[in-house]
């Protein structure tokens, strides 16, 4: 053990005072990173932390604890060089500190050098073999290097040893998206259950991971595999997955369809729904709603479902009590939205909380949420287009999501300064963001939730997306975001309103004939505004192109029937290589996703026009570019590619390269 003498010359009373100040600084620093406080409160705590550290360092300039903590504060404020110097100064004053090597590890990650970060975290573990922070740092560094399987095992170990940090769950969930599951594994199943049980995680992002585990557990690749209804009804992983995710897996969809049919067959035979089957029945109903009722049903099932709906109407007519309706409603909800049934008006006599607790998620999804969303749609002229549609053909919001991804709260000005290296001194207190093609709003709401200095305008051509996102924002008590159709956004910009950040999501479809995204961006952007866009386009698989040709040749309409028939055709030929790309895409497993990509595809000409706009180097400057994995690229080569494309070189085209690029308006 090495004895340190860095403060031996100081009187004990001074040493004690420095220790107290560092302790107070640590407490203030903890508050400054507390998710329970507002951003303004956290900034105030950060300021107090600095004041305590200044006092401590005035009394003891070489205090290793004070130097290290000040380094953390500087790093959080984006001052990476200052932070690096302070961490090293702390180690010079007191070598062998695991904490400072951890700090250097996080400094290296912030500097986008994950391999160096791993080295620092391993040094920290050499100093302290029990350091959970260092072990967690190794996991983060491995993940950033793309070693998802190794990082995943590190996160699992942390959870097994009692860590309950949000960043551990979030990191494990992030890695899970990249794992390939080839055999049944009890530990993986337990991991999936732990992630699905954890509130606040974006469970929608691990549907593929969970689906692969379910596929292996039920041996779905084996045509002779037997699935027992009672066993499935007791399978915690399956029920959690049905409640919380959408599994983009053809074999799992077939399993769900088979289980639903088995439930219906038993009900038809016994005229009752056993208590043991009710959790599975409710979970399938939630899942069916999430898919937009994409799940295929045989004619005899549809007839039975219709008979059950007729019986519910009769039960209302003779004024049977609520309890007598519950079993029938559970079965009905597996096949269609309760909001669309002829007895929907009678359901309105009860509030959501009047239903048994286990039924409330299904009742919310199948009835109450849809009612709220319909009320929101009435505020927009675009609602008129839906009035001539059958209830079941009204588009459903997509993508389906339930939780925002985990982020640390910050400000847009900090992001512009730290991530893009831009001068933010002359910017106003509140910045305005417009998200073009926000879809059902997850990304837009993450910007509004985690950036404390913004108001967000989210725009989409789907009224279903606008209604769902508005309802979700109201549920989250968010008052700094609005969701609009393009018509209102165009009027807003035409009235002279401008924005400081443009985020381009899903591109408008060819149906938006009166919209030029490039013209809107050009008019809406103030001098210094940032445009963040992607140079690739999704939804371009061979299967998509074949289906879009079928739609055009046969003049198909986006009804539930035609969408289900197109899906059935693909699933019937799932072993044909031409459908592989489509079957791998999340969109295929929801009628909303299928409708978007086949009947409202993204318009490539909108992206070409937008790229042509930002290629003008007099007006726009490329300030950052990232590849598909999120790694920063040198802007010089990308800029040369843009210039070559402007001169007509298709070989050098950015279109289709899946880069994430940030341009700043020069004037």
| C-alpha end-to-end distance | 61 Å
Broad structural category: alpha/beta
Helical fraction equals 40-55%
Total helical elements: 30
Specify Rg, calculated over alpha carbons.
28 Å
Enumerate the spans where pLDDT stays under 50 for 5 or more consecutive residues. Answer: 1-5
**In one word, what is the shape?**
globular
Number of strands: 7
**Oligomer kind:** single chain
Instruction: Please state roughly what percent of the residues sit in beta strands, choosing from under 5%, 5-15%, 15-25%, 25-35%, 35-45% or over 45%.
Output: 5-15%
Tell me the major beta sheet. Answer: 7 strands, mixed
**Mean pLDDT metric:** 93
Lateral arrangement of strands in the main beta sheet: 3-2-1-4-5-7-6
Describe the structure.
By secondary structure, the chain is of the alpha/beta class. Among the domains are: 186-378, no CATH class; 412-538 and 603-665, Rossmann fold (3-Layer(aba) Sandwich), CATH 3.40.50.150; 542-600, no CATH class. It has 30 helices and seven strands. The chain has helices at 12-32, 39-59, 64-76, 80-93, 98-110, 114-127, 132-144, 148-160, 166-176, 186-197, 207-217, 229-233, 236-244, 250-270, 278-290, 299-317, 322-333, 344-347, 360-377, 412-418, 442-450, 463-475, 486-494, 517-524, 542-553, 560-572, 580-583, 591-599, 604-614, 635-646, and strands at residues 431-436, 454-459, 481-484, 499-504, 525-534, 620-626, 660-665. Strands 3-2-1-4-5-7-6 form a seven-stranded mixed β-sheet, with helices on both faces. Strand 2, helix 22 and strand 3 (481-484) form a beta-alpha-beta unit. Helix 6 packs antiparallel against helix 7. The protein is globular and about 90 Å long. It starts with 11 loop residues before the first helix and ends with a strand. Residues 1-5 have low confidence and may be disordered. Pfam families: TPR_19. InterPro entries: SAM-dependent_MTases_sf (IPR029063), TPR-like_helical_dom_sf (IPR011990), TPR_rpt (IPR019734).
């Amino acid at each position: 053990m090495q004895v340190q003498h860095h403060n031996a010359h100081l009187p004990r009373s001074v040493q004690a005072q420095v220790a107290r100040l560092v302790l107070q600084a640590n407490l203030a620093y903890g508050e400054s990173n507390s998710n329970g406080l507002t951003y303004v409160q956290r900034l105030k705590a950060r300021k107090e932390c600095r004041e305590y550290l200044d006092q401590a360092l005035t009394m003891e300039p070489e205090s290793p604890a004070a130097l290290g903590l000040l380094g953390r504060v500087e790093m959080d404020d984006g001052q990476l060089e200052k932070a690096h110097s302070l961490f090293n100064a702390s180690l010079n004053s007191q070598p062998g500190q695991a904490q400072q090597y951890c700090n250097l590890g996080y400094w290296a990650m912030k500097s986008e050098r994950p391999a160096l970060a791993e080295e620092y975290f391993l040094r920290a573990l050499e100093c302290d073999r029990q350091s959970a922070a260092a072990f967690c740092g190794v996991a983060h560094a491995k993940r950033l290097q793309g070693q998802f399987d190794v990082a995943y095992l590190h996160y699992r170990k942390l959870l097994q040893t009692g860590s309950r940090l949000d960043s551990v769950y979030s990191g494990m969930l992030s890695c899970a998206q990249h794992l390939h599951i080839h055999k049944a594994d009890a530990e993986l199943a337990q991991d999936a259950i732990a992630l699905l049980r954890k509130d606040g995680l974006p469970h929608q992002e691990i549907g593929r991971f969970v689906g692969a585990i379910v596929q292996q557990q039920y041996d779905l690749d084996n045509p002779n595999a037997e699935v027992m209804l009672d066993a499935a009804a007791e399978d915690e992983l399956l029920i959690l997955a049905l409640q919380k995710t959408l599994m983009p897996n053809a074999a799992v969809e077939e399993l769900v369809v088979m289980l639903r049919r088995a439930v219906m067959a038993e009900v038809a035979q016994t005229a009752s729904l056993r208590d043991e089957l009710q959790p599975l029945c409710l979970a399938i109903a939630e899942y069916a709603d999430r898919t937009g009722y994409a799940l295929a049903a045989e004619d005899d099932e549809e007839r039975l479902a219709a008979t059950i709906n007729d019986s519910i109407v009769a039960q209302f007519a003779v004024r049977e009590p609520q309890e007598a309706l519950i079993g029938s409603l559970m079965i009905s909800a597996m096949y269609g939205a309760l909001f669309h049934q002829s007895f929907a008006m009678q359901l309105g006599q009860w509030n959501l909380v009047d239903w048994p607790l286990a039924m409330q998620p299904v009742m919310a999804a199948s009835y109450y949420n849809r009612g709220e969303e319909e009320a929101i749609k009435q505020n927009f002229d675009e609602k008129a287009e839906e009035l001539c549609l059958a209830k079941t053909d009204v588009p459903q919001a997509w993508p389906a999501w339930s939780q925002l991804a985990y982020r640390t709260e910050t400000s847009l000005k900090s992001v512009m300064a730290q991530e893009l290296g831009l001068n933010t001194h002359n910017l106003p207190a509140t910045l305005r963001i417009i998200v073009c093609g926000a879809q059902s709003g997850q990304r837009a709401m993450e910007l509004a939730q985690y950036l404390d200095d913004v108001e967000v305008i989210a725009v989409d051509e789907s009224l279903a997306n606008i209604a769902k996102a508005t309802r979700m924002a109201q549920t989250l008590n968010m008052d700094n975001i609005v969701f609009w159709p393009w018509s209102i956004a165009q009027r807003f910009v035409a009235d002279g309103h401008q924005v400081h950040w443009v985020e381009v999501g899903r591109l408008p479809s060819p149906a938006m004939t009166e919209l030029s995204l490039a013209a809107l961006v050009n008019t809406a952007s103030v001098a210094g505004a940032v445009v963040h866009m992607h140079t690739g386009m999704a939804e371009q698989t061979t299967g998509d192109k074949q289906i879009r040709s079928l739609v055009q040749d046969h003049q198909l309409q986006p009804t539930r029937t035609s969408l289900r028939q197109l899906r059935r055709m693909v699933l019937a030929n799932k072993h044909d290589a031409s459908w592989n790309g489509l079957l791998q895409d999340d969109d295929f497993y929801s009628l909303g996703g299928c409708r978007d990509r086949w009947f409202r595809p993204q318009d490539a000409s909108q992206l070409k026009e937008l790229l042509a706009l930002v290629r003008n180097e007099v007006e726009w400057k490329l300030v950052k570019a990232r590849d598909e994995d999120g790694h920063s690229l040198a802007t010089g080569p990308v800029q040369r590619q843009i210039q070559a494309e402007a001169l007509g070189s298709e070989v050098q085209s950015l279109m289709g390269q899946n880069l994430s690029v940030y341009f700043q308006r020069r004037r």
